[in-house]
Amino acid sequence: MRRTPAVLLLAALLLPLAACAPTIDPSEARESLSEVTQDPAEPEAAEEYDAEAHPEPIVEPLECLPYLVVTARGTGEPSRGQLLDPVARAISEARPDEVLRLDLDYAADTDVKEGGTVGARTLVDTLNVQAESCPDQRFVLLGYSQGALVVGDVLAAPDVRLVGQRVGELTPEAAERVLAVVLYGDPRFVGGEPTGVGDFDPELNGILPRPPGSLDAYAERLRDYCVAGDFVCQASLDLDEEPHVEYYSNGMQQDGAAFAITRLDPPSRATEDRSGERDPARPAR
């Protein structure tokens, strides 16, 4: 796994992170993801969440803390106890009273096109509204499995998306505010991209690989974690569920949190006083 010295240090400090892995039906998961491209029909949500036809944001402004951390959970994960909870918590604890956490409001069920469309519109509007309402707020985006698909598609151009082609785009101001993107078990993973982290086979892609270069604008801000044998990000023919949930226990939660923390500003003196020691994180821009 590729790591910088700063990330290694922070990962060691974040070892207590933990979450319980869900039970996954690999056949059902693969089928639900494959249907995204096998069925050419648009989901029912496409018209309702069309940004051109319905330009008014579907979300209200949130609190203007310095950082907004958004989690997009995987298929079937609960809102609490998901893979991304410890990652978001570690980021919050690194900057006490400076982080607002938001779990993306979308179904995360097996109707990926329908739920993904809603999730994509919600995320686009949330980031755009916050960029306009909170001039100093910046964003950290976390996604697992289906959630990684949604986050990645929002950051990509509409013509290469698989969900949310019509939900609008991030404004330049919102896109610039994205400090870090951390994805796990991404169905749209591309093995040859430099943003990949893990022991994956670079010759293998995910079930629904995005066109190479789709996320180049975020390359320095993105970590796309994938392990060997993960049938979602490696399109493995072996439908073993274990690799797709290894992220709960293999240290990649800590590594992802550490990477995101290094992207934040140095802690204020007030933050240092509350934590009792200086945070070694430094922005990497």
TrEMBL record:
It holds the Pfam family Cutinase. Keywords: Disulfide bond, Hydrolase, Serine esterase, Signal. SMART domains: Cutinase (SM01110). GO terms for molecular function: carboxylic ester hydrolase activity. The keyword Disulfide bond applies. Residues 1-21 form the signal peptide. Residues 28-55, 262-285 are annotated as: Disordered. Residues 41-50 have a biased composition (Acidic residues). SUPFAM superfamilies: alpha/beta-Hydrolases. Residues 270-285 have a biased composition (Basic and acidic residues). InterPro entries: AB_hydrolase_fold, Cutinase/axe. Belongs to the cutinase family. PANTHER family: CUTINASE 4, CUTINASE RV1984C-RELATED-RELATED. This is Cutinase. It comes from Leucobacter massiliensis.
